[in-house]
Every structure is written in C-alpha cells, then in structure tokens.
Amino acid sequence: MNTASCPLFGAGLGLRRSFMDELDALEHKPTDFLEVAPENWMEIGGLLGKKFSHFAQKYPIVCHGLSLSIGSPAPLDEHFLIRLKKFLDKHNIPCYSEHLSYCSDDGHLYDLMPIPFTEEAVTHVANRIQRVQEILERRIVMENVSYYAAPGQEMPEIDFLNAVIKLADCDLLLDVNNVYVNSINHNYNAEDYIKSVPSERIAYIHIAGHYDEADDLKVDTHGADIIDPVWDLLQTTYQHHGVIPTLLERDFNIPSLNSLINEVDQIRHHQSEWEQRHVATI
Fold it and tell me: What CATH number does residue 45 fall under?
C-alpha cells in the first residue's frame, strides 16, 4: 500500500447526512475512517459545514470524487480542481480518489461512461491524471469501474488499468465488487484480475452490494448487502496483497446505521482473520 498517498487503516464507511447525528452520538467510533464525495461538501457552509468540519477533526477523511471525468475528450475543469484543492487543504484530507471513466463532454452525462481500452486512451488519460496531480499537489487514486459495454476495445481491462496507473504514476482504489460484477458481465476470472494488480499501488479498497438483473448481468448499485462471493473475493484480495484499508459503500436503500456498522464489522472480521492466519504461518 502507498501509505504516503493514503495513510489509512482498518475499515471505513461512506458518510451520509441521514445518519451524521446518530453516528456522532455514539460513545465509540464504529469505523476507522470516513469517505465523502467532495462535490457534496465543497460549497456547504452554515450548520452542515460546521458538522463536516467536526467530523473531519474526529475521523480520517478520504474524498471520492464524482465529476472529474478523467477520460473525457473535453478539457479538464481546472477551476473545479483549484476549488477542490482548497477544500482538501482546509480539512487536511490527504487522499482523493476518482473513477477511471468519464461523465461529461459539453455537459454532464450523469453516468460513468467506459473509456475505450486502447493505447491512445492510456496516453490521453495518463496525461490528464498527471495534470490533476500537478494542480492538487497530491498523488491521486483511480478506481476500476463497472462497465456494461467496451467500445473500441483493443486490450483487456486489466492491462488498460495497469498501463494507466504505471504511466500516470498514480495509485489504485481497488473496487472488489466492480471486479466481481465485471467478471460476470464480461466473462473473465475475477481472482486472476485481483492477482494482476500491483500491490504497492493499492491505496484502499471499496466493497459494496449490487443488483442481479440476470445470471449473466449484474448491475453495480451500492444499494444492497454484500453477497458471499464478493466477501470471498475480498478474502482473496487480502491473501494476495495483504490487509488493505477497506471501505463499505452504500449509496441507495440505505439501512439503519446499526446494519451498516455490522457490515463494517464484517470487514474487520475478514481483516483480523487474514492477519491471524498470516501470523500462524510465520
């Protein structure tokens, strides 16, 4: 893990306004770190802004962006990046991640569109990532995304991902559920994919639930509980790369805070289980 880019540990949770007060009222900290979309907080002042500042002092915070659109043919929104840098600096947030996809051209598309897996796209995206890192004065973290079509594909997804990360000299947010969903939808081996990413580039991990449209079509929704095959793939990830900070994503059909904490505790259980096995083999 690149600790200089994302100095995290343990199990994390995406922070939602609906349970901020309930989470803050707990006597213990049920999560080791929190994740937010910076676009949802950058311009917020007043009471909510004060609440966010309070949480940023109480918990390590990571930002997972929604609108960078790193693969877009349109110019980077450098005005947005300057505002983002001020937000990250203000709250001492060291880690900013984004999706290896695009969501805009002349305007926002409100969806994550697949970047063609081509050598030309590798160069295009890597150059844009390097420019983002120059502006933010931070090494950023790119996430492997779910996709449902692969237009103009010239190389496997894993080769494209690794080529971008290497050329851009950035880090990886490894989304285990996305690997599982894509492996079903595009008929590849999920464990082989996991084993092919460079351990030293993985800053942290996402894990989430999805929707079963059909046996051969899974939809990444972040709106359901994590299923056993995805938990198993997380264990495979730990076995191959070691225990890496892991965050529970839940964006829709959000259950009670207790239910979310139970899934965060499951992450901790798998982390502890791997560490015990590792110690036993030394």
Answer: 3.20.20.150
- Report if residue 197 sits inside a domain: yes
Q: Is residue 242 part of a domain?
A: yes
Q: Can you tell me the distance from the alpha carbon of 102 to that of 99, in angstroms, rounded to the nearest whole number? A: 8
33-42 pLDDT tens trace: 999 999 999 9
Instruction: Note the pLDDT of residue 201.
Output: 97
How far is Cα 213 from Cα 20, in angstroms, rounded to an integer?
A: 32
DSSP letter for 41, please. Answer: T
C-alpha 177, offset from chain centre: 10
DSSP per position, 128-195: HHHHHHHHHTS--EEEP---S--TT--S-HHHHHHHHHHHHT-EEEEEHHHHHHHHHHTT--HHHHHH
- pTM, to two decimals: 0.94
User: For 145, what's the count of Cα atoms within 13 Å in the CB-facing half-sphere?
Assistant: 26
CA distance 93 to 63: 7
- Write down the residue that tokens 């800053």 correspond to: 203
User: In the numeric block, which tokens belong to residue 238?
Assistant: 């730990």
Q: Which residue has the higher pLDDT, 220 or 19?
A: 19
